[in-house]
Every structure is written in C-alpha cells, then in structure tokens.
Amino acid sequence: MIKIAKYIMYDILRNRFVMLYTLFLLLVTFSMYSLDTDPGKATLSLLNIILLVVPLVSIIFTTIHFYNSYEFIELLLAQPVSRRTIYFAEYFSISLALCAAYILGVALPMLVLNFSESSLYLIMAGLLLTFVFVALAFGASVSTRDKAKAIGVALLFWFYFTLIYDGLILYVIYSFSDYPLDKVTLTLVSLNPVDLARIIILLKLDLSALMGYTGAFYKNFFGSNMGVIYSILFLVAWALAPLLLAMRKFEKKDI
Amino acid sequence: MITVSDVNKRFGKLEVLKSIHVDFKRGKSYAMIGPNGSGKTTLIKCILGMVLSDTGSITVNGKPIANDWSYRNEIGYMPQIGRYPDQMKIGQIFDMIRDLRQNQGGIDDELIKEFKLDRMADKRMHTLSGGTRQKVSASLAFLFNPKIMILDEPTAGLDPVAVEILKEKIVSGNNKDRTFLITSHIMSDLDELTSNVVYLEEGKILFDDTIDLLKEETGELKLGRAIATIMKRNINDMERV
After folding, report:
1. What is each CA distance from B214 to A40, B36, B195, in whole angstroms?
2. pTM for this one?
3. Do A69 and B85 touch (CB under 8 A)?
4. How many CB pairs under 8 A join A and B?
5. Which of A79, A169, B34, B227 lies 20 to 30 Å from A253 when distance is taken between CA atoms?
6. What is the ipTM of this complex?
7. Bridge-partner residues for B22, per DSSP?
8. Contact A4 B82 (CB under 8 A)
9. B 76-95 residues inside an 8 A Cβ radius of A
C-alpha cells in the first residue's frame, strides 16, 4: 500500500489546486493574526473559516480526484494487488496530502505566531475534519459512476453539515423549548462532525458561553477535558464509518 | 489457461454477457471481435477481476479468480484508454509498477527502448499525447514477461511506426506457453497476429474456432470479409425471425 500511496501522494502534492489551497490557508492564517490584536479572537475567526473551507476543499477535491484517476485505478487493478490495498492507498495519499497542505498553511504559521493550547486543538480539529470529509467523499464517489452526480452528493454533504444541520438543530430546540433538551442536543451535536470540531476549540478557548445553551451545557456535562475526548472519539468514528462502508462497496464495485 | 464458464453479467436492465463459455488455451492467440457494445471489454474486465460476474466462474491456470489477486502476476494488460496521474513522470510509472510486481519472469524492457520512452523518463504524463500514453501502456503490459497478454485495442492511436514495432513484438512473443487475447476493429492486424477468433455479438459468443476454419466456412480469403459475412448472415437471420 505504501508503495502505491507514495507515488500518488507525490502526484497530488504537485497538483496546482493543492498548492493554491496551501497558499490560501497561509494567507488566511497570516491575515487573521495580523488583523486582530487579541490572539484568542483571531483563533476564533480562523476557526470559523477553517470549519467552512477545510470540509469543502477536502470533499470536492477528493471526489474530482477519484474520478480523474479512474483509468489509473483500472490499471492498478490489473496488477497483482488486492482492491483493499488500492482503496487505502488512494484514501491515505489524498488525505495525507491535504493534511500536509493544512500543516503548511495553518499549523506551522500558527505555531510561530500564536503558540497556545487552543492552537494545537485547532490544528488537530482541522486534520481530523480532513480525514472525515475525504472519507465522506469516497462514500459519494464509490456509490455512483456519474461524476456530476457524485460531486452533487459531495456538495450536499457539505451544505448539510455546515449549514443545514445547524438550522435543523435550532429548529428542534426552538420548537421543543418547553422540554428538557440537554441530552437530545448533545446527541444531535455528535451527529455532525463540523459541530464536534467546533466544540473542541470552543471548550479549549473557554468561549463556550458564546456558543449559548448547548455549549454551556456541554461544558457542564463533561468538564472541558472529557468533552474534548468525547468529541475526538466521535470525529474518529465519523472518519472510520464512511471509510469502511465505502471500502466494502469498492470491493464489490464494477470498475 | 483461462476458462470462462457460464458467465452472466448485467448492468441494470442491460444484459451485457449472456452465458459465456469460452476456453483460452495456452500458446494460442485469440482475436476477440464484435460490434461496439457487444461485451468484449466487459468480458476482458471479468477475466481481470475488475467486473464481477453475476453468475458463473472464471479460472486461470485451474484456480478460480474470485477473491484472489495473485493470478494477476501472470497477466499483462493494455487498456483501451490509458490515463495516468497528471504529475507523474514516465519513469515513475514504470518504477511504481515494478515495485508492485514480484518479477518472476524477469524484465522485458525492449518496448521501452524501441518506443524511446527511456529518453523521455522525466516527462510528466499530462504533457504526453494520446499515442505516447498508449506506448507507455503497451510497454507496461510487456514489462514482466507475463504468460497471458490481454490487449484491448492495442493499435488504436499509435503511429504507423509504433504499430509495426508493437505488432512485431506480439508476433515474436507469440510462443508455446504464452496466450494472447487481442480485441481490435482492424481486421488486417488481427489476421496477422492471431490464430483463433472469438466472435461476440450482443453478449453471446457466435463463433469460437480458428481463423482458417472461419475463412473456409465463409469461403472468404480475408478475416475482415469473413467476419462481415457472419455479421450479415446474423442480420438476415434476425430479419427472417
């Protein structure tokens, strides 16, 4: 697997899109820290951008890359290697390449400009989100042969997790506000990887009050360390579940 | 060497392969002929394990290929369209596949030299023309001296010089323990390169024997005309029904 992944990763790292992504992240990180004098606030603004951009880029790039390497996957399948090997080689080369872009664009400048515990958590959250959304993109790409459809589904995932889901939660909380909803909201939040990533940082930034009701409750319920561990575990599950489901589909797929 | 028995495959409503029985024997070279969409590529992909058949079984050297990948050590495959990662260099493609294969048969890089690909080892794949990419695919298929060669439209897109180089390579490699499976729409090529014909139409095998017998049966001297005769005969049959 490493043999294949090595070559594919080399190919992706030289891709213009990934280079642009790195540059964009660099630009955003630098501008956030130079615009805002309070590093806590800057981290928060950066968080909001990262929570939008990282999932979007991961999911779209992966889907397009998967379809562009269709013939190449075909060639690999004609070689004496198992489908599983090819699948994981593709997954890890894409996600690690995007992680490398993220590390160059956000993590390194952040460690230089504002080294703090919350920065470390922001870095980790971004990396985890990359793995989650690359896995979701594999789920979308493996399910259909139609590139346009897969990109549509991938975009829908992104819309759903970054925009629609929050609306739905608000709606639920608003309409059932007469009932105790603590545990329900907690469960609902766990069902969205983007919210989980947000919670990790907010708990660490000690800004949970800003997140209103759910944040305050979350902090109360877990204390901040437990909350972070809980969120990380769920994020890992969010990467593993689609990854394994898509793998089973890929093993039975007609290429 | 390759035995296909009772293989059926449908994509949704479309029945692509209908109860295919065919035996590709060691040391023979087969031409797979059929109109577009007759199931040639699907049959090849079934043999390579890329498409999983709905029913039936395929064995290579007596071993069933389901849930096995090691049999592909013995197969060299040249796809119809070869596309490679854009930023990869020609040399890297060869290195990577060489890494993946345990070369038991030794390396045969004659084609790489003949196509002068070794001089372009640093060129990136996206800068190559379609024909050059075909050359890469062909060289890869021959690189490990495999016992089974599957070539899907090998001469399409190649320039006349390259076509001759490739044909010569196929003829010279055509020996007792090698099996060739070639699809093409260029009948004169197949006439030169192969000894047997498997004729597919709408997912069924309508003819499976030597080219000589086919010519004798139809009374034609050239493979192209003989195939045309069969196709016409089938159309007439269908009209009568």
Report:
1. 82, 21, 11
2. 0.90
3. yes
4. 79
5. B34
6. 0.88
7. B4
8. no
9. 77, 79, 81-88, 92, 95
Write down the residue that tokens 């990948």 correspond to.
B69
**B204 contact A CB<8A:** no
Which residues have a Cβ under 8 Å from the Cβ of A121 and sit 6 or more positions away? A200, A201, A204, A228
Q: Which residues of chain A have a CB within 8 Å of the CB of B95? A: 7
Q: Domain residue spans in chain B?
A: 2-83+141-240
Contact yes or no for B88 and A77 at CB 8 A:
no
HSE toward the beta carbon, residue B130, CA cutoff 13 A: 9
Q: Of B178, B177, B175, B194, give the one whose Cα is nearest residue B186.
A: B194
What distance in Å separates residue A146's CA from the closest CA in chain B? 14
Chain B residues in contact with A11 (beta carbon < 8 A): 85-88
CATH classification code of B2-83+141-240: 3.40.50.300
CA distances from B191 to B31, B180, B197, B199 (A): 9, 13, 10, 14
